[in-house]
Amino acid sequence: MLTYANQMTILRIAAIPFFVLLLVYGHTGAAVIVFVLAGVTDALDGLIARKLKQRTSLGSFLDPMADKLLMTAAFITLTVPSVPVKAHIPAWLTILSISRDLLIAMFSLLLYLRLQVSKFPPSLLGKWTTGIQLVTIGVCLAVNFLPHRFLLVFDILVYACLFLTIASGSHYLYRSYRLIESHQRAGGET
User: Fold this and answer.
1) Do 47 and 75 sit in the same domain of this protein?
2) Could you give the number of structural domains in the chain?
3) CA-to-CA distance for 183 and 175, rounded, in angstroms?
Protein backbone atom coordinates (compact mmCIF):
# COMPACT_ATOMS: atom_id res chain seq x y z
CA MET A 1 0.00 0.00 0.00
CA LEU A 2 1.41 3.37 -1.00
CA THR A 3 0.70 5.40 2.13
CA TYR A 4 1.67 9.03 2.68
CA ALA A 5 4.65 7.84 4.74
CA ASN A 6 5.81 5.56 1.91
CA GLN A 7 5.42 8.40 -0.57
CA MET A 8 7.74 10.54 1.60
CA THR A 9 10.29 7.72 1.63
CA ILE A 10 10.10 7.35 -2.17
CA LEU A 11 10.57 11.12 -2.46
CA ARG A 12 13.76 10.78 -0.38
CA ILE A 13 15.05 8.05 -2.71
CA ALA A 14 14.19 10.20 -5.74
CA ALA A 15 16.19 13.12 -4.26
CA ILE A 16 19.45 11.14 -4.18
CA PRO A 17 20.47 11.64 -7.84
CA PHE A 18 19.75 15.39 -7.56
CA PHE A 19 21.89 15.61 -4.41
CA VAL A 20 24.79 13.84 -6.14
CA LEU A 21 24.53 15.85 -9.37
CA LEU A 22 24.37 19.14 -7.51
CA LEU A 23 27.53 18.25 -5.58
CA VAL A 24 29.39 17.03 -8.66
CA TYR A 25 28.61 20.22 -10.57
CA GLY A 26 29.62 22.49 -7.70
CA HIS A 27 26.19 23.61 -6.49
CA THR A 28 27.02 22.82 -2.87
CA GLY A 29 24.39 25.14 -1.37
CA ALA A 30 21.61 23.52 -3.37
CA ALA A 31 23.00 20.06 -2.52
CA VAL A 32 22.86 20.93 1.19
CA ILE A 33 19.23 22.02 0.81
CA VAL A 34 18.35 18.72 -0.91
CA PHE A 35 20.22 16.78 1.82
CA VAL A 36 18.37 18.67 4.58
CA LEU A 37 15.02 18.17 2.83
CA ALA A 38 15.78 14.46 2.54
CA GLY A 39 16.42 14.44 6.29
CA VAL A 40 13.11 16.21 6.87
CA THR A 41 11.27 13.58 4.80
CA ASP A 42 12.96 10.92 6.93
CA ALA A 43 11.56 12.49 10.10
CA LEU A 44 8.17 13.11 8.50
CA ASP A 45 7.65 9.61 7.13
CA GLY A 46 8.12 8.10 10.59
CA LEU A 47 5.88 10.69 12.21
CA ILE A 48 3.16 10.26 9.58
CA ALA A 49 3.33 6.46 9.83
CA ARG A 50 2.87 6.61 13.62
CA LYS A 51 0.24 9.37 13.76
CA LEU A 52 -1.90 8.04 10.91
CA LYS A 53 -1.25 4.39 11.83
CA GLN A 54 0.19 3.79 8.37
CA ARG A 55 3.00 1.37 9.23
CA THR A 56 3.44 -1.10 6.40
CA SER A 57 5.85 -3.88 5.53
CA LEU A 58 6.81 -1.87 2.42
CA GLY A 59 7.65 1.10 4.63
CA SER A 60 9.70 -1.03 7.03
CA PHE A 61 11.78 -2.13 4.03
CA LEU A 62 11.90 1.18 2.12
CA ASP A 63 12.77 3.52 5.01
CA PRO A 64 16.09 1.96 6.05
CA MET A 65 16.94 1.32 2.39
CA ALA A 66 16.39 5.02 1.58
CA ASP A 67 18.61 6.02 4.52
CA LYS A 68 21.42 3.69 3.46
CA LEU A 69 21.17 4.77 -0.20
CA LEU A 70 21.39 8.44 0.74
CA MET A 71 24.30 7.92 3.14
CA THR A 72 26.19 5.69 0.71
CA ALA A 73 25.69 8.18 -2.13
CA ALA A 74 26.89 11.01 0.13
CA PHE A 75 29.93 9.07 1.35
CA ILE A 76 30.98 8.07 -2.17
CA THR A 77 30.37 11.50 -3.72
CA LEU A 78 32.14 13.36 -0.91
CA THR A 79 35.13 11.01 -1.26
CA VAL A 80 35.74 11.77 -4.95
CA PRO A 81 38.64 14.26 -5.11
CA SER A 82 37.29 16.08 -8.17
CA VAL A 83 34.02 17.03 -6.42
CA PRO A 84 34.39 20.77 -5.68
CA VAL A 85 34.02 20.87 -1.88
CA LYS A 86 36.39 22.14 0.85
CA ALA A 87 36.56 18.82 2.70
CA HIS A 88 36.48 15.28 1.40
CA ILE A 89 35.66 12.14 3.33
CA PRO A 90 38.75 9.89 3.28
CA ALA A 91 38.42 6.90 0.95
CA TRP A 92 39.35 4.50 3.76
CA LEU A 93 36.40 5.70 5.84
CA THR A 94 33.99 5.37 2.92
CA ILE A 95 35.25 1.85 2.15
CA LEU A 96 35.06 0.85 5.82
CA SER A 97 31.55 2.28 6.29
CA ILE A 98 30.15 0.61 3.19
CA SER A 99 31.92 -2.66 4.03
CA ARG A 100 30.39 -2.61 7.51
CA ASP A 101 26.90 -2.18 6.06
CA LEU A 102 27.48 -4.96 3.53
CA LEU A 103 28.79 -7.24 6.28
CA ILE A 104 25.73 -6.57 8.44
CA ALA A 105 23.42 -7.22 5.47
CA MET A 106 25.29 -10.44 4.65
CA PHE A 107 25.07 -11.71 8.24
CA SER A 108 21.39 -10.76 8.47
CA LEU A 109 20.71 -12.74 5.30
CA LEU A 110 22.75 -15.67 6.57
CA LEU A 111 20.90 -15.66 9.90
CA TYR A 112 17.61 -15.61 8.04
CA LEU A 113 18.50 -18.37 5.59
CA ARG A 114 20.16 -20.70 8.10
CA LEU A 115 18.24 -20.01 11.32
CA GLN A 116 15.05 -18.24 10.15
CA VAL A 117 15.96 -15.20 12.29
CA SER A 118 13.76 -12.57 10.68
CA LYS A 119 14.48 -9.72 13.11
CA PHE A 120 17.99 -8.40 13.63
CA PRO A 121 17.32 -4.95 15.07
CA PRO A 122 20.03 -2.31 15.14
CA SER A 123 21.99 -2.02 18.36
CA LEU A 124 22.44 1.22 20.27
CA LEU A 125 26.04 1.27 19.05
CA GLY A 126 24.79 0.83 15.48
CA LYS A 127 22.39 3.75 15.91
CA TRP A 128 25.22 5.92 17.29
CA THR A 129 27.34 4.97 14.28
CA THR A 130 24.59 5.97 11.87
CA GLY A 131 24.18 9.22 13.79
CA ILE A 132 27.90 10.07 13.67
CA GLN A 133 27.99 9.17 9.97
CA LEU A 134 25.16 11.61 9.30
CA VAL A 135 26.84 14.30 11.38
CA THR A 136 30.13 13.68 9.54
CA ILE A 137 28.37 14.10 6.18
CA GLY A 138 26.55 17.19 7.45
CA VAL A 139 29.74 18.84 8.74
CA CYS A 140 31.58 17.88 5.54
CA LEU A 141 28.91 19.80 3.64
CA ALA A 142 28.73 22.65 6.18
CA VAL A 143 32.47 23.45 6.17
CA ASN A 144 31.96 24.82 2.67
CA PHE A 145 30.15 27.75 4.26
CA LEU A 146 32.13 28.09 7.51
CA PRO A 147 35.56 29.51 8.33
CA HIS A 148 38.55 27.27 7.63
CA ARG A 149 39.06 26.42 11.33
CA PHE A 150 35.93 24.24 11.23
CA LEU A 151 37.90 21.72 9.19
CA LEU A 152 39.40 20.62 12.54
CA VAL A 153 35.90 19.67 13.74
CA PHE A 154 35.47 17.65 10.56
CA ASP A 155 38.78 15.85 11.13
CA ILE A 156 37.74 14.93 14.69
CA LEU A 157 34.41 13.62 13.40
CA VAL A 158 36.15 11.48 10.78
CA TYR A 159 38.11 9.66 13.49
CA ALA A 160 35.07 9.38 15.77
CA CYS A 161 33.21 7.89 12.82
CA LEU A 162 36.09 5.47 12.22
CA PHE A 163 36.07 4.33 15.84
CA LEU A 164 32.29 3.83 15.99
CA THR A 165 32.19 2.09 12.60
CA ILE A 166 34.78 -0.46 13.73
CA ALA A 167 33.17 -0.85 17.17
CA SER A 168 29.64 -1.34 15.84
CA GLY A 169 30.80 -3.67 13.06
CA SER A 170 32.59 -5.80 15.65
CA HIS A 171 29.53 -5.70 17.88
CA TYR A 172 27.25 -6.90 15.07
CA LEU A 173 29.68 -9.76 14.35
CA TYR A 174 29.64 -10.69 18.04
CA ARG A 175 25.81 -10.57 18.15
CA SER A 176 25.63 -12.77 15.05
CA TYR A 177 28.05 -15.26 16.58
CA ARG A 178 26.03 -15.35 19.81
CA LEU A 179 22.77 -15.91 17.90
CA ILE A 180 24.29 -18.78 15.93
CA GLU A 181 25.78 -20.25 19.11
CA SER A 182 22.46 -20.07 20.99
CA HIS A 183 20.60 -21.73 18.09
CA GLN A 184 23.21 -24.51 17.92
CA ARG A 185 22.89 -25.13 21.68
CA ALA A 186 19.10 -25.14 21.44
CA GLY A 187 19.27 -27.56 18.50
CA GLY A 188 21.68 -29.86 20.37
CA GLU A 189 19.44 -30.02 23.43
CA THR A 190 16.31 -31.10 21.56
Assistant:
1) yes
2) 2
3) 12
What are the pLDDT digits (tens) for 105-156?
A: 888 888 888 888 777 777 899 889 988 999 999 999 999 888 888 899 999 9
Collapse the DSSP code of 153 into the 3-class scheme (helix H, G, I; strand E, B; otherwise coil) and give the result: helix
Among the residues of 52-123, which ranges form H helices? Answer: 57-79, 91-115
Q: What is the pTM of this model?
A: 0.88
Q: Are 176 and 107 in contact (CB under 8 A)?
A: yes
Alpha carbons 30 and 18: distance in angstroms, whole number: 9
- Report whether 12 contacts 45 (CB < 8 A): yes
According to the model, what pLDDT value does residue 190 have? 42
Distances (CA, A) of 187 to 23, 80, 180, 182: 52, 49, 10, 9
Across 170-179, average pLDDT: 89
Which H helix or E strand runs over 45? helix 28-51
Residue 2 to residue 7: CA distance in whole angstroms? 6
71 & 157 share domain: no
Helix (H/G/I), strand (E/B), else coil: 21:
helix
Largest CA distance in the chain: 65
Shared domain for 73 and 159, answered yes or no, is: no
